[in-house]
């Protein structure tokens, strides 16, 4: 355990670090974050004994730092400093071997078999084994950094101090280096104290965080420090929005730069309609939430497509099919929400309305062959009928993520109401259907104006969505009904 109490210190008479108290548990990966000049490197230098402390105490494994001899310290802690470009006139392997020095015995410090094994192992782990016979100075910045990390690991320290270890590394080597370090940390109960500038990297790999500002510790503790937008904004003097990594439950942050004023054309779009597909193209990306086959979840999209498929379509990779159709039409697959339907696209309904100054557009294709009452226990009939409701709602307003979810709810309530009013039934249970088994929905907002947190039935936008979706869906369902009757 590393225990720091009321620590102050710096250079000559200047106190850079002021009254810092913090504990780092053994086996933790502790990330020190903070803006340039906040004192991170100075704090590391005080902890590693490079700088004299002016006040306070540092206790490592229950002993004052000052009670350790130089050799004991070298065995206990290794440092990977920022000075990766020091010009050593050695081969890469010789540099790494220097890390074994505190473990070597005798006057001549002979290299043992174990030294060689450790050096080979750490060089492989840091992906520099292939450079072992090359002069250190001829390596690239990132390769040098990895060789110096290998040297630090060769020391087999109990505490590893890293000053911006990923500074020169590309994304692959950043991730692999930190993954190796995590593995090392777990296997050897290694304590890592790392200065990291990239807060998202810190969030992915650190167990605990310390936030420094102007030589003071603003906060130390859990990763939730990275979710405090206000505190980060005050310390870094830049607007920050927190969110989550899409795959793993770790916080991530996005900086919000001052945007150049861009013309947002609201709900202006071009509509292309063929027998095969409907395409609405907007000039500006819209904030979207959808369960589209393509572009699902929260995204920013400019293109919205609904593709017609045969009634017996049974693609094994529908997303891939949509991507190939988009490519044929030269529509970017990266900012597109793509849906599928077996409904005749001639029966698409489109309604634009305005409610207290908010414009709302609904584009719907509807069939009810797969109508289902979601509250009944019956098994869903898997046979494919022409029967999907694809709802696209475009709103000229600024919706928060929560409001987007609210909007999905409002549109869904309107859909169910239309089903009930038209007495559409679940073919298996005979009860009123609440939707169909493969319904798709998109809410897209222009994000013009002030953010609004709600879009439920108690709000103008929510009501607007409800009324527009209901009207559009009723029209689409009537068209579907007419065509079905004709076909009978
Ligand atoms: N050798 C030195 N002598 C005097 N002052 C120094 C010295 N090194 C750094 N400082 C000062 O100490 C303060 C903190 O510097 P430090 O390098 O600890 O910050 P940092 O948080 O690591 O910054 P960065 O993110 O830019 O690396 C700065 O104001 C810096 O000018």
From TrEMBL:
InterPro entries: AAA+_ATPase (IPR003593), ABC_transporter-like_ATP-bd (IPR003439), ABC_transporter-like_CS (IPR017871), AdoCbi_amidolase (IPR002808), P-loop_NTPase (IPR027417). The keyword Translocase applies. SMART domains: AAA (SM00382). Residues 2-239 form the ABC transporter domain. Pfam families: ABC_tran, CbiZ. It comes from Metabacillus rhizolycopersici. The lineage of its organism: Bacteria, Bacillati, Bacillota, Bacilli, Bacillales. This is Adenosylcobinamide amidohydrolase. Keywords: ATP-binding, Nucleotide-binding, Translocase, Transport. The keyword ATP-binding applies. It comes from the Bacteria. PANTHER family: HEMIN IMPORT ATP-BINDING PROTEIN HMUV.
